[in-house]
Every structure is written in structure tokens, then in C-alpha cells.
Design brief:
The complex is a heterodimer of chains A (about 280) and B (about 350). With about 280 residues, chain A is mainly α. Chain A has one domain. Chain A contains eleven helices and two strands. The longest helix of chain A has about 30 residues. Chain B has about 350 residues and is of the alpha/beta class. Chain B has two domains: about 230 residues, 3-Layer(aba) Sandwich (Rossmann fold), CATH 3.40.50.300; about 60 residues, 2-Layer Sandwich (Alpha-Beta Plaits), CATH 3.30.70.260. Chain B has eleven helices and 13 strands. In chain B, strands 5-6-7-3-8-9 form a six-stranded mixed sheet, with helices on both faces. In chain B, β1 and β2 form a beta hairpin. Chain B is elongated and about 75 Å long. The two termini of chain B are about 45 Å apart. The chains are: A mainly alpha (about 280), B alpha/beta (about 350). At the A-B interface, α1, α2 and α5 of A face α2 and α3 of B. Bound molecules: adenosine-5'-diphosphate (ADP) and magnesium ion. The site of magnesium ion has 5 residues of chain B, from α1.
Chain lengths: ~280, ~350
């Protein structure tokens, strides 16, 4: 039967990292499924766009009057709005990805038994992991595009390099979604999600989103510099202000590793949980 | 791959009672069941599921303890047993979503450990617990499920329309699944399991929790599938369901198979033709099994009644009456699989 041939062919892309039979190459059908499912709950989608925009107006315009200008990545002064906007861009890429890959995935995994239904088809755990991460990514990407447009409209994009902020936001979203999904696979109850908030919230506030790294003593700077959101904020801020240098590749590398590890752990954990 | 086979127009549905797009095999297809309903011919005897010493352990618990199964193309095969017998554990191994702990297993001639996705592409699964996609409508549930199997968008849409008709849900196509009744949800899950035109259908307790009318409706659908040669493996703890649907079944208890055969053969082998049920006003007026031994072949004591096994129940009742036995109520009925189970395990199927 041609079925054997099909399976053999589509199984090839990730042969070594994932055990045989874990990947049917149809992750995009899951993205399609999410898009269909969200059509009826579009207010949820829209609210995710406005959140960082509100932050930008409240903090940038309101608080910005009191703060004045801050030194930008290259030392030249930039407005407070221009300073926090890339931070908010990075944070919204993180938040969108984490929300989708944690609460939503947990519900589908433990309550709706949706992944069990999918595994009764040729789909494997890797299709599920990549498909769900892919949707989180797409959603985060749309928010980033929207927010970048707002930044452009308010003259907060200082350089054409800012266009690279969009693929960067996608990479950041991928990495956070993958790690979020991997973490979710270890959650036993809704209470455990407070732990995620405990990580996300301080990162949002302290990872140089709202003020520069220089305000910290050196010991705390080292802690902040290890946080993923710090790398995302730095990456976005350098790109939107046009301060492009080889150091940006370090940030990119950080997220590539984070995305790869997250995806592998997520797929393996799904396999252990669902195929037992 | 049969799931992707285009269905030609001449196998239209709805015109005759027996034709149903997707379930009618084209002329060249290996037919499972001959016209008279019996397996015949070379391909028809094909063994779709072959298990030997199949076992499943969860830590210290051995849920399935070395069972042998042969499911033959075209038949409806039953796994009858009480809750906790290991039916679902066995089904999950056959469905390639649970690796076996020991023994050998072949489904459609392939080993689930090696060819899981290839097997899953050609079987249909109705799980014990509802797992419909609550974010999607009834129609979308079928379409997206078809896409999981690799159907094209157009083919998935067409298949969904056919299956909505089959499941008698065409008028609810755009409803959200939460708004469906239990029976409708179950029919939708059965329809969903058919989206890839499977050669083998695994149904885990398909009618548990449904009201009598909904059960009959579902049985009717399953019977129609059988008419079209779809091989089915059904687990149940309802003896009436097993008796009604299954050509052959195994009685399963505590992870092992206690007996195997057709419902009629099992009843013939492990029970008498009739059963005489006697209820007494009090335990004092209730005769002991030894007192009754001379009148019938076998006596089972249940808390609320005695079951007396005899080939002629009426005659046995008359004889007991003449001997002065005065039950408060009596009933003569035909033996059922429930009696077989009681005989084999000493317990009732449904506690
Ligand atoms: N994933 C699991 N982990 C641990 N024990 C399980 C698991 N699945 C089933 N069991 C146990 O295996 C036994 C058989 O269960 P099951 O196969 O569901 O029986 P049935 O379907 O006949 O009711 C039960 O004792 C059940 O608690
Ligand atoms: Mg069960």
C-alpha cells in the first residue's frame, strides 16, 4: 500500500533527535486547527494586541514626561517611549507565546484529551509539539507586526534595521513557546502555573524593559544578563534604534538553543505522557 | 492507501439502503464478507489482529496478563469484561498508543512498535472517553480529523459531508460539540473514526452512559458498518451489547481471557438453555443450594435471588413447586452471557 511509502518519506526530516514514528510532517494542520478554533474567540486574540499598546501610552507618554530622555544602546539619548517600546515588543512576544503554550496546552493535554485524539491518527508527539508551538509563534508574530506598526506610526523606529525586529520576535516567540510547552508537560495541577507567573512577572519588570541595565550593581547585572527576556529586549532595542553589531548574534544563538532544547523536551515529554 | 482512495460517483449513497460512500469497496477491493455474511475465499480469512501472550504492566500492576487474540477480516469481535478487566489497556496497545510490556502483537500484519503510524493510518479508534475538539463545530471536527490523516482539503470536506449523513448529524453540522446530546457526541466520534475509511475499527465501550434509545441508534450504525464489511473490535461490559453485536468474543476478567467463542456457543458451553430465577420472602424460607441440587444442573446464589440452571426451566419450576418450594416470585428466562460470566468468574458483570 502507498501508506507505507508516505510514512517512510515524511518521517525523514528529524530522524535522529526524535524516535521513529514521532513525526508525520503535518504540524501545520494543527496550526490550521488552532486558527479555526480561535475564529469564535477573536476578542481574546485582539486583547493581546492592545495590552502592550496601552503600556506604551501609559508609561511612554505618561511616565515619559517625568523621566525625559534616556541613553540609548550607543549612548546617544532617546525618548523614554523609544526606550521602552522595543522592551514591550520583546515582552509581548514572550507573553503571547507563554500564554498559548502553557494554560491552553495544559487544558488540551489533561482535560480535553485533544492530543490523545490526535495520536489515534498518524500524527506523532513531534507534530503536536511543533504544531502548537507554531500557532503560538504565528499569534505572537501578528502581535509583533501590529506593535511594530504602532511604533512606526509614532516615530519610534529609528532605523530600517527595525524590519529585522519582526523575525527576531518570531524567534523569541518560538523559544518561549517551546520552553513553555516543555514546562507545562511537568505541571500536575493549575496551582503549578503560579510558578510560571513567578518567573514571567519579575522578568517583565526587571529585564531592562523599563530601565537600563546600569541601574543595577554588577552582581545583579550578571543575573539579569542570564535571563532570556534580557536578550530579547537588547536584541529588539538595538535593531529598532539601528545599533547593529556582531554581539546581536549572541542573542540570536541564545534563542536558537532555547528553542531547540524546548522543542525536544516538549516532544519527548508528550510522548512519555501520552504514549504510555 | 485506502483513506486517500478517490470514491467514484457510482458508489453513491442514499439511494439504496446498503450503499454508503466510502464503506462500499470498489469491485477490485479484497472483500471481507461474502454475500451470505460468512468469511470465505483466500483474502477473507485474513487475520487483522494477532496477539500472543500480550501483556501490559503499569508499575507493579499487571493490567493485561498474557492474552491471545485473533480478529479476522469482516467479523465483529468482542472483549467482554467488567470494569478494570484490562479491556482499555488492551485496546490502547492495539491502537498503537501504548507500547506492550510483553508478548507479540500484529495489527494489519505490522508490529505497532515499528509501524505505529502506518497502522494508525489504516484503523479507526473510538475511545472510551469523549475527546471531541470543543473549539470546533461538528463539521470541522470531521474535516480537521481528516486532515490529520493527510486528506486534502477538498477530500476532507467531502468525507465530512458523507459522514454527517451517516451519523444522522447533517442538521447539526454547524453546532458546537458542547451542544450535542450524549448519543450525538458518540455518533460523531464513530463518524470521526471512519474519516480515513479504516479497515479495522476499534470501539472502546461505545454505548456506555447512553440511554436505551441512543444505544439502539448507535447499534444500528455499527450494524450498518458490519454490513459493509468493516471489521470491528468492540469492548463492552454490557452482555446485551456483546450478544447483539458480536460474531465472536472473549470474556475477559482481571487481565486474562476466561473463555472464547460465539455468544451462542459460549452460552451452550458454559450455561444451560434456561435459567430459573427465584426470590424468597426471607433468608429463612430460602432453600440451600444442596436442597435444590437434585432438581437442576447448577445453582448460583446472589444476595437477592437464586439462579437455577436447567435446560427446561418451566419443568424445573413445576418440580420444585410439587416438592413444596414456595418462592415469593419466579421467572424463567433464556441463558445470557451474564450467566456465562457468572459461571466463569463467580461474579456479576455489572456490580
Ligand atoms: N495509565 C495507567 N496507569 C496505571 N494504571 C492503569 C493505567 N491504565 C489503566 N490502569 C489500571 O489497569 C487496570 C485495567 O484498566 P482498564 O484497562 O482501563 O480496564 P477496563 O477498560 O476493562 O475497565 C485497572 O486496574 C486500571 O486502574
Ligand atoms: Mg475501559
Amino acid at each position: 500500500m502507498s501508506g507505507h511509502v508516505r510514512q517512510a518519506r515524511v518521517r525523514l526530516p528529524l530522524p535522529r533527535i526524535f524516535p521513529v514514528g514521532c513525526y508525520a510532517g503535518r504540524a501545520r494542520v494543527l496550526v490550521l486547527r488552532s486558527a479555526l478554533g480561535y475564529r469564535r474567540s477573536w476578542p481574546v486574540l485582539v486583547s493581546g494586541f492592545f495590552e502592550p499598546v496601552f503600556y506604551l501610552f501609559a508609561m511612554g507618554q505618561g511616565l515619559g514626561r517625568l523621566v525625559g530622555d534616556l541613553p540609548g544602546p550607543d549612548g546617544a539619548p532617546i525618548s523614554y517611549s523609544a526606550f521602552i517600546a522595543p522592551g514591550l515588543l520583546a515582552a509581548s512576544a514572550m507573553n503571547g507565546a507563554v500564554l498559548d503554550s502553557t494554560y491552553n496546552v495544559f487544558f488540551k493535554l489533561r482535560y480535553a484529551k485533544l492530543y490523545d485524539a490526535m495520536l489515534a491518527t498518524p500524527l506523532g508527539p513531534t507534530d503536536i509539539a511543533l504544531g502548537e508551538i507554531g500557532w503560538a509563534l504565528l499569534r505572537g508574530g501578528l502581535y509583533s507586526l501590529g506593535f511594530l506598526s504602532v511604533m512606526g506610526a509614532f516615530g519610534l523606529l529609528g532605523s530600517p534595521w527595525a524590519l529585522l525586529a519582526l523575525p527576531s520576535a518570531l524567534l523569541v516567540g518560538f523559544a518561549f513557546a517551546a520552553v513553555g510547552m516543555a514546562a507545562t508537560s511537568f505541571m500536575r495541577s493549575w496551582q503549578d502555573f503560579d510558578l510560571i507567573q513567578l518567573v514571567i512577572m519579575p522578568m517583565f519588570l526587571f529585564a531592562t524593559t523599563f530601565f537600563p541595565l546600569g541601574v543595577y550593581p554588577r552582581s545583579l547585572q550578571l543575573v539579569v544578563e542570564s535571563l532570556p527576556l534580557f536578550h530579547a529586549v537588547e536584541l529588539m532595542r538595538d535593531l529598532t534604534t539601528g545599533v547593529v553589531h556582531a554581539g546581536l548574534l549572541v542573542h540570536v544563538g541564545y534563542f536558537v538553543v532555547m528553542a531547540a532544547l524546548g522543542t525536544i523536551v516538549a516532544a519527548r515529554r508528550l510522548r512519555a505522557l501520552l504514549l504510555c | 492507501m485506502s483513506a486517500l482512495r478517490p470514491v467514484s460517483g457510482k458508489y453513491g449513497y442514499g439511494h439504496t439502503s446498503h450503499s454508503l460512500v466510502g464503506f462500499v469497496r470498489p469491485p477490485g477491493y479484497r472483500r471481507a464478507v461474502s454475500e451470505d455474511g460468512f468469511n470465505s475465499g483466500s483474502e477473507n480469512g485474513a487475520v487483522l489482529v494477532k496477539a500472543r501472550g500480550l501483556s501490559k504492566r503499569f508499575g507493579p500492576l499487571e493490567a493485561v496478563r498474557g492474552i491471545d487474540l485473533d480478529v479476522i477480516r469482516g467479523e465483529v469481535f468482542g472483549l467482554l469484561g467488567p470494569n478494570g478487566a484490562g479491556k482499555s489497556s488492551a485496546m490502547r496497545m492495539l491502537a498503537c498508543v501504548s507500547p506492550r510490556s510483553a508478548g507479540s502483537l500484529h495489527v494489519l500484519g505490522m508490529d505497532p512498535d515499528v509501524d505505529g503510524p502506518a497502522i494508525r493510518a489504516r484503523i479507526g479508534v473510538v475511545p472510551q472517553l469523549d475527546n471531541l475538539d470543543v473549539d470546533l463545530s461538528v463539521r470541522e471536527n470531521l474535516q480537521i480529523y481528516g486532515r490529520y490523516f493527510g486528506l486534502s482539503r477538498a477530500r476532507a470536506r467531502q468525507r465530512a459531508a458523507e459522514l454527517l449523513r451517516f451519523a444522522q448529524l447533517a442538521d447539526r453540522a454547524d453546532s458546537q460539540v458542547e451542544s450535542l446530546s450524549g448519543g450525538m457526541r458518540r455518533r460523531l466520534i464513530v463518524a470521526r473514526s471512519l474519516v480515513n475509511d479504516p479497515e479495522l475499527l476499534l470501539l472502546d465501550e461505545p454505548t456506555t452512559g447512553l440511554d436505551p434509545q441512543a444505544r439502539h441508534q448507535l447499534w444500528d450504525r455499527l450494524y450498518q458498518l458490519k454490513q459493509h464489511g468493516v471489521t470491528q473490535l468492540i469492548t463492552t461490559h454490557y452482555m446485551d451489547e456483546a450478544e447483539r453485536l458480536c460474531d465472536r468474543l472473549v470474556v475477559m476478567d482481571a487481565g486474562v481471557i476466561a473463555a472464547e467463542g460465539s455468544p451462542a456457543a459460549l452460552i451452550k458451553r458454559y450455561s444451560t438453555r434456561d435459567v430459573l430465577e427465584l426470590r424468597f420472602a426471607s433468608q429463612v424460607s430460602r432453600p440451600t443450594p444442596t436442597e435444590l441440587a437434585g432438581f437442576v444442573e447448577r445453582v448460583e446464589e446472589l444476595p437477592d435471588r437464586l439462579l437455577l440452571y436447567a435446560d427446561d426451566g418451566e419443568a424445573a419450576l413445576g418440580a420444585l413447586h410439587r416438592a413444596g418450594v414456595r418462592p415469593r416470585a419466579s421467572l424463567v428466562r433464556r441463558s445470557s452471557l451474564e450467566d456465562v460470566f457468572l459461571r466463569l468468574t463467580g461474579r456479576s458483570l455489572v456490580e
